[in-house]
Amino acid sequence: MISIFSQYKGLSKSAYVIFFARIITNMGGFIWPLLTLILSRKIGYSASTIAWLSIAIGGLFLPATIIGGKLADKYNRKKLIITFDIITVIFFILAGLVEPGTLMLVFFVIAGLFANMEYPAFEALIADVTKPKEREKVYSLSYLGHNLGFMFGASIGGLLFENYLSLAFIIDGATTLLSTILIIFFIKNVKIQNIEEEEENEYENNADINTSSLDILKKRKSILIQLIIFMFSSFIYDQWSFVLPLYMEDIFLDKGARYFGLISSFNGFVVIAFTPIVTHLLRKLNELPKIIIGITLYSLSYLIIVDTNIYFIFYIMMFAFTIGEIVNMLGSAPYISRRVPASHRGRINSYRNIGYFIGGTGGRVIMGYLIDNMSYGAAFIALGIIGIIAAIVVGFNYKLDKSIFPKLYQSDNGKVKIDAQLEE
Fold first, then answer.
1. Taking the CA of residue 36 as centre, how many other CA atoms within 13 Å lie in the half-sphere pointing to its CB?
2. pLDDT-based confidence at 412, cuts 50/70/90?
3. Higher pLDDT, 198 or 144
4. Which of 82, 250, 252, 389 has its CA 20 to 30 A from that of 281?
């Protein structure tokens, strides 16, 4: 048990700053999972309308993500994060000062727009300020912080939803501001690949800044395939905040929002309790096998709640879903950072974010159609089938990845040996 928690000792100082920043941000980060219920219960949209709104919002977010990725590779990533976070905070607070309706949605979308512009810089920042060998543990710790804050935040959000929705928006903005302050004061002198020579990874060598990111992907085809898989992974994963709350509202009526908030908190609890354990148990397993296990688990977990109105069963479903989520995160989070030149992290991460948006918004449209024209059971079965197909494709990509990045598969007791020197 001691070894499980001691694995987080000796990480880069920035890793712990990011951990605490994640906790603070996500203690107020309960608006996003409640968005479906806000649009349906507070504003009055149908499932199909919400799905199409998601597509429209995603259409706005895509160019913002691309711009954010380019800016992250051109300018100081820390300064970009601070700037975008401050703008996000302003519009979160504005959303909390108006009644539920079109104007609230507009303010919320603008806040999300800048939050998405910030995302590629933040993902690149994590890789910049940490060492390649500790990357998986750093992402694990960051994810743990995300869910430690979210566990409390989701319950608070469920309680505030009915009568104090405006306060929820303001709290979300305030916590984002606090986490930004941590980054301002405690993450300093960020430099791309600021690591010790013996821990360098030749695949992270800076490429010519003018080299197209598409050219990078052509030469490293397994990354391109994995970006497509991330899209389908998002298609499946995103339904926990779309189909699940609608299903629970359909079954439990006015108790649906509160029950969903509790289930969301349980998700955070499982992450906190099991992320260190799963990280330790799967430490010798490569990224892509973890992704296979993760996608399979959380896609099939939806089948557990088909045609049931027993509340306890939803906790069983959420446990299986969350274990899959943890395993998938341990594989997908460090995958890009170890295979992409440091000079192109922002742009490649923006492509990954685009994949998440396409998968998530496209999934909402398809699931909305299935719900309105067929049944929730049909929607859940579709998710299981898509998950199995995605896992099989990752299995084939695993072989390709080995041939393109052979040195990432040279190991001794599960620790990667890479002797290449980093080119300045």
1. 25
2. very low
3. 144
4. 389
CA 122 from chain centre, in angstroms, equals 12
Strand partners, 411: 416
In whole angstroms, give the CA distance from residue 55 to residue 5. 41
d(CA 389, CA 385) in angstroms, rounded, equals 6
What tokens appear for 254 in the block? 């006015």
The answer to whether 92 touches 172, Cβ cutoff 8 Å, is yes
86 token code pair: 């401050």
pTM confidence score: 0.70
Residues paired with 416 in a beta bridge:
411
How distant, in Å, are the alpha carbons of 44, 45, 295, 389 from that of 392? 40, 37, 10, 5
Angle at 152 between CA 150 and CA 157, to 5 degrees: 85
Distance CA 422, CA 416 (A): 16
The CA radius of gyration of the chain, in Å to the nearest whole number, is: 21
Q: Taken in order 389, 390, 393, 398, is the CA torsion positive or negative?
A: negative
- Evaluate whether 361 touches 135 at the Cβ level (below 8 Å): no
The answer to whether the beta carbons of residues 174 and 52 sit under 8 Å apart is: no
pLDDT value of position 292:
93
- Residue 195: its pLDDT value, please? 44
* Rounded Cα–Cα distance for residues 237 and 230 (Å): 10
CB 108, CB 221: distance < 8 Å: no
Q: Is 415 helix (H, G, I), strand (E, B) or coil?
A: strand
pLDDT band at residue 392 using 50, 70 and 90 as cut-offs:
very high
